[in-house]
Every structure is written in structure tokens, then in C-alpha cells.
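Next comes a concrete protein, fold included:
___
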Amino acid sequence: MWTVLPSPIGDLRIVERDGKISAIEFSPFQPPADGRPLGAESETHPVLAEAVRQLRSYFDGGLTEFDLPLAPRGTDFQQRVWVQLITIGYGHTASYGEIAGRLGMTNAASRAVGLANGRNPIPIVIPCHRVIGANGTLTGYAGGIERKQTLLELEQDALF
């Protein structure tokens, strides 16, 4: 099942499978990469309704940590990277190299971390927007640099 949430960064399609959030997609929406049907649209499914509630609260500056059942699909390495992303606190950032270091790898793994970061199927909730370049610059973001900047500014504004 799925629903669409209007947000400050454009419409977001939230997808649920087996009682867990499996994807949050930026508009314009693409067909599912895995070819699986999304199912019916539902605004009342409990997991989707809770995801919408928490995302609205996040965008309003009232929520700093999500509490949703998640089921991101990816390789073991991608899963390990995504677990690290969740540890980056609201309003904070980490570099690709720092994430590699947390995984016990050298800076040389920064590119692999970046690729895994870019494959994150549940952005915002798994905060891939909080990963930046080693020199503090905003680097690639699946939703576009403008969205990344907006999300980081939203978090900074809510803190001050």
C-alpha cells in the first residue's frame, strides 16, 4: 500500500509492505525498481498514517527522531551503511569518510559509502541528507541538492 504526502520538498510517496515502511520516494514518481506492484493507495493504513503524522511533525520542526517500522531492501553493505546513517543526530552531519570509519574501513571506502547512501530507499527517515563531503560541501543527493539543502536548513532552523 502507499500514500502521498505533500511536503516542503515536494510530494513524497510513502510505500508500506508487510506492515513496514519500505520506501519514501521523491516526485516525480517512478515505477517500482523491483517491478513489484505498490498495491492500493491508502490514507488510513496504520503504518502509513503514522508515517505521515511523523513526517508532518518533522517538517513542522517538532520531531527530531522517527519511530517507524522500516524494511529497506539492499545488500548487506548497504544495510550496514543505512544503520550508521540513523546514528547521525538531528541537525548534525557526517562525512562519507566518517561513515566509512564507523564501519571499520578507511577513507578509501568513502565512494562505496556514497553509493550505498545514494541507494537508500527511505530518505529523510534514514537521514542520508545528513552526509556531506569531507570539506563540508553538499554533495550528491538522490532527491537533488536543493532538497538536501532544504532538509539540512529545516533541521538547523528548528534547533535555533
